[in-house]
Amino acid sequence: MVDILNIDLNYQMMITELNGLHNDRGLVLPGVHFSLMINLDTPNLSSTYITSFLTNVLSNLSNIDFDLYCGSQAQKKLVFAIKDIYSISGMLVDQSHCLSVTTIEDSSLSTELYHKIRLLCNKESLLIRKTTIENMIRNHEYEHSLFAQNSSSILGHFTEHFLPDDLYEELFNKYSSIFNNLKPETLKRLHTITAQLLRCSSVKIILYASVFNDFIVSGELDFYGFRIQLTPEQRLRYIKHVDELRQNNEQLDLKVLPNGILSDYQHIPRPTLFHSQDFSYLRFARNTPEYNVCIPNKIILNQIFDEFFTELWNSDTCVSADSLITHSILSIEILQPETSKN
Predict the structure, then answer these.
(1) Are 205 and 243 in contact (CB under 8 A)?
(2) N or C: where does the chain have the smaller number of CB atoms within 10 Å of the terminal CB?
(3) For the chain, which residues score pLDDT lower than 70?
């Protein structure tokens, strides 16, 4: 239970990155269970900083059993409790000072404190709900996000949303077996809906420049939560389709963010956020699709995301996507074998 947004940045990173142990996105530690309660009542911080920080937390800890809670109980406090082992608590004065620090090595006392904190970590205080793309589709949440009002997105990686029909069919035929609990017609129907919406509806999209650069080199695509790799020829068709959508739908507005959200912290993961007035979710590029999606469980978090997107969209940082798309197409053409060019 930590007033984590009110402590020094270095301490924030120590707590949330756990010394980099979980930064390998292929690493899954099912035996590790970690809950964190934070205080979001921080009027002095911008929504951009809060979103960046939470994205960093959720991304770094998405491959363990991690739950995030919010509550005023965490204000001015720093309390860690490890069940049956150890606990430490402190009362904060400011970002870099504690009024007092208490450590408990008695296992019974540590366990008692552990259970008291756990009582605060309940459904009412749960800040995010973890799920999968498959669950979202079964629960109609994926569809809900498509039809939500005032749709906007910030993309840290490319997803299945922008696939042309022919390429979608190819990938579906190759990878449909990974979707054990979904009917093929369900996925095809969702693709048809998505394609139609992108052709005619009003959507605002911010893409990091790194999205294009990574895609050119790796060809990695998030296909309903599963990471697959496209050939250079498939990458070219994908990017050209994005360009075609942009040119044919005047209501599809694309902007590019050349750098990270916070210029001083370029290492913070780029969030992939599908946001709307009604429904939002964060989507991470992981080897483990069961840990890929976080849905805000609190209105306050959706409001923070809304302010964050508006700040970013209206800032001078974002630029036109024209030159980057053109550069991406030329770069991918160079990667193709001479036979494919002919």
Answers:
(1) no
(2) C
(3) 15-28, 62, 260-269, 286-291, 338-342
| Residue 155 near residue 261 (C-beta atoms within 8 A) | no
Strands ordered across the beta sheet of 77-82? 77-82, 86-94, 97-104
Q: What is the per-residue burial (b if ≥16 Cβ within 10 Å, else e) of 266-291?
A: eebbbbbbbbbeebbbbbbbbebbbb
- The span from the CA of 182 to the CA of 205, in Å, is 28
d(CA 300, CA 40): 8
The DSSP secondary-structure symbol of 103 reads E
Q: Report the predicted TM-score, pTM, of the whole model to 2 decimal places.
A: 0.85
Quote the CA–CA distance of 237 and 164 in Å, as a whole number. Answer: 8
In the numeric block, the tokens 């946001």 are attached to 275
In this prediction, residue 177 carries a pLDDT of 87
* The two structure tokens encoding residue 180: 């054990």
Give me the pLDDT at residue 263, please.
58
Tell me the Cα Rg of the chain: 22
Q: Which residues fall within 8 angstroms of residue 303, CB to CB, at 6 or more apart?
A: none
Residue 43: helix, strand or coil by DSSP?
Answer: coil
Pairing of strands 252-257, 319-320: antiparallel
List the one residue out of 177, 160, 154, 270 whose CA is nearest residue 220: 160
- Report the alpha-carbon distance of residue 162 to residue 167 in Å, rounded: 10
